[in-house]
Design a protein that fits this description.
By secondary structure, this protein is an alpha+beta fold. The protein has 5 helices and 7 strands; from the N terminus they run βαααβββαβαββ.
Length: 190
Amino acid sequence: MTIEVRPASAFEDVRTLLGPKSPTANVCWCLSYRIPAKLNNELRGPARGEYVAGLCGSGTPPGVIAHQGEEPVGWAAVAPRADTSFARSRTIPHLDALPVWSLWCIRVRPGHRGKGISHALIAGAVEFARSHGAPVVEAYPLDNGTARVDLTMAYPGLRKNFERAGFVHAADTTSVLAGHPRVLMRLDLR
């Protein structure tokens, strides 16, 4: 099985991975951390997908997509931290003034899990950020140890997967998700 990770410039692929089954449903579309809270609350139903379609067609796509052949099988959101709500976070600390990129969501489609796709997504997101000049990539994964994590709440990734990709623990946070603390992990690309 060959996995290729590409920029998320094809909206149909993003819709396959993040869109709702019902077009009028309200789902995240991976916008919750990307846009200001007011806009996030205002965008409803199809307007959320339309916003993401605009991002896919912009100069910098909103993340990367893992493909098995031509089938989209996984998603990772990555962008400059300054362009996300992490720039204003009270629970995830700022360590310095570097223009870091944030990697905050990893999603693998059911039926494709357990095949290393999340590892490919992390590597692909790092390469995407590097190609756009990122000096450092940050992630805010769950520090779950050996405890199981509900898959719907595992979207920030798991600490051990980021360690495997070369990220190092840079700071603790006060953020908790699904009962697990989140840590700030960094990969220096300089």
